[in-house]
């Protein structure tokens, strides 16, 4: 089966970094990369974003800018070292990003989505962008890799998988984590805040499942206590110089979907130079 990777872009430096990171990460794999740009018009009222009328002059201008921007990316890609394993397609859609991704994913069934941690309109230093958090909330059919601006383009040598073992991870998704570890010859450090002797039956079962899926790569289970996960993860990654973080993203609750409660990625804290891979729970 072809490895189809979706690369959303808003033509920012961050999204270009994400494209480069994906190319480097999968340099040894045959992949078809789909570079997606969407555009829509801001309005006022109950719905803050409305799709454009194809006949409007404004829409034609947005379409032209979108196609020109994608053309510029193809020119930039042509200047990179050629890789026979990789093909590139560009897609321009007059739609909301989440809707466009859902539509394309139904047709193409992406193996992974790789995107920037924040877009061109998000200037806040230590926060993930609105579009990034929106995709994490709405798209659950494949893993999503979030790449920050200051990312190191070398292959990761250590990946931290953070989990409390409460959620049953999709076997198909943890295989992607294992594949990345194998491609990079990286070890996986599983980090939790629950002491082994205090795990419930379901937690032990989920831990056994994770252990069985990690059997083909170097891995170790670590537990910390009396500290919040964001603090534990930040210290763990900084001390060990880990190159990637992964977490099990459970389905958003009713309140998370409404925006009253932070979604899982926000609870982990912001990482300015470490990519974060969201795997989905059942």
Automatic annotation (TrEMBL):
Residues of the UspA domain: 3-148
Origin: domain of life: Bacteria
SUPFAM superfamilies: Adenine nucleotide alpha hydrolases-like
One family name in Pfam for this protein: Usp
Protein name according to UniProt: Universal stress protein family protein
Source organism: Maribacter ulvicola
């Amino acid at each position: 089966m072809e490895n189809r990777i979706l690369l959303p872009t808003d033509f920012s430096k961050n999204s270009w970094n994400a494209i480069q990171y994906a190319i480097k990460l999968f340099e040894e794999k045959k992949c078809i990369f789909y570079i997606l740009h969407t555009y829509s018009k801001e309005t006022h009222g109950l719905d803050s974003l409305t799709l454009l009328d194809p006949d409007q002059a404004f829409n034609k201008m947005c379409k032209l800018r979108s196609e020109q921007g994608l053309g510029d990316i193809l020119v930039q890609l042509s200047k990179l070292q050629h890789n026979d394993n990789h093909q590139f397609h560009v897609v321009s859609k007059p739609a909301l990003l989440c809707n466009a991704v859902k539509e394309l994913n139904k047709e193409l069934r992406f193996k992974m989505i790789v995107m920037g941690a924040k877009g061109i309109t998000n200037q806040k230093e230590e926060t993930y962008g609105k579009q990034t958090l929106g995709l994490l909330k709405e798209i659950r059919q494949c893993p999503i890799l979030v790449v920050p601006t200051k990312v190191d383009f070398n292959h990761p040598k250590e990946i931290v998988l953070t989990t409390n073992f409460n959620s049953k991870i999709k076997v198909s998704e943890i295989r992607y984590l294992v594949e990345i570890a194998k491609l990079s010859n990286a070890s996986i450090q599983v980090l939790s805040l629950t002491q082994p002797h205090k795990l419930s039956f379901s937690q032990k079962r989920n831990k056994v499942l994770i252990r069985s899926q990690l059997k083909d790569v170097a891995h170790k289970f670590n537990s910390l206590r009396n500290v919040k996960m964001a603090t534990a993860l930040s210290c763990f990654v900084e001390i060990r110089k880990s190159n990637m973080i992964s977490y099990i993203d459970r389905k958003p609750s009713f309140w998370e979907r409404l925006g009253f409660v932070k979604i899982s990625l926000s609870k982990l804290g912001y990482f300015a130079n470490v990519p974060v891979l969201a795997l989905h729970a059942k």
